[in-house]
Amino acid sequence: MGSLQESLDRFKKQQEKCQTTLTSIAPRAGATRGTPPKHASSMMPNSKSMAPAVKFSNDTDRLQHINSIRKAPVGAQIKRVIDLLFENRKAFTPEQINEVCYVDILANKGVFDSLKNNLKVHYDGKRFSYKSKHALKNKDQLLILIRKFPEGIAVIDLKDAYPTVMDDLQALRAAGQIWLLSNFDSQEDIAYPNDPRVNIKVDDDLKLVYRKMELPRDMLDIERDLQKSGMKPSTNTAKRRAAAQIHGISQKPKTKKKKHEIGKRTKLTNRHLPELFKQ
């Protein structure tokens, strides 16, 4: 860190020295050589059109940026490296990391040791790479993994598997191969396999609670309860009823037709099966 700052200071001093030398060259040259001849005035460049003095500050901003990165806290430097590994999903040597994101791992033991012990980083002795919780590469492997968890797997554990994993989750849901449901306790999405071959066991206590639960008779009450639970109803009864009133459609429930019992006057077409029609 100190050597970089010293180099930067020396570079600035060289800039000032070179600038001073350039600005003093023109006056001295005119004093020693005397007044130029008249015909030479047309050959002399116009002072207004002369190019600006050369500045040696093209690399100053980059050096200052590198210095600020290397002086940052260890946590900030580690995050910078992990972001690089996450976005590229490639293995980098310490020299390559220093070249790309300016974090000098070899010169900072704290950063080096923290990266080696980080849960999101894999170190094979030469290179660093990103380590996700589940080693997946494509949609097919994602579906195979979800089918191994009939009780559901948290989406947060899948988000960093590979860059397009969230798009693949939505594609699998749209194809009807998985379910994406929200967990009321943690408000996190859970991925469930939609596979008829999966045998899901349901506790008897849960079955009993389900069978004892009485739903409201009015759809408006059902939709209101769903909204209280944080779910969006798939129907809008209030809107449907308002539209029906505008068009004069009756909302009275349809009466069920009474089933006719088989009597003596009923024509039997299957007389060869008389046991089916015994009173």
Characterize the structure shown:
Helix 1 (2-33) packs antiparallel against helix 2 (60-70) and helix 3 packs across helix 5 (109-116). The protein is elongated. The strands form two sheets. The protein has a three-stranded antiparallel beta sheet. A two-stranded antiparallel ribbon has the order 1-2. It has 279 residues and is mainly alpha-helical. The chain has ten helices and five strands, in the order αααααββαβαββααα. It has helices at residues 2-33, 60-70, 74-88, 94-101, 109-116, 139-147, 165-174, 204-212, 219-228, 237-246; strands at 121-123, 128-130, 153-154, 178-182, 189-193. The model is unreliable at 26-34 and 39-45 (pLDDT under 50). Recruits TFIIH to the initiation complex and stimulates the RNA polymerase II C-terminal domain kinase and DNA-dependent ATPase activities of TFIIH. Both TFIIH and TFIIE are required for promoter clearance by RNA polymerase. Residues 26-48, 229-279 are annotated as: Disordered. Residues 62-137 form the TFIIE beta domain. It holds the Pfam family TFA2_Winged_2. Keywords: DNA-binding, Nucleus, Transcription, Transcription regulation.
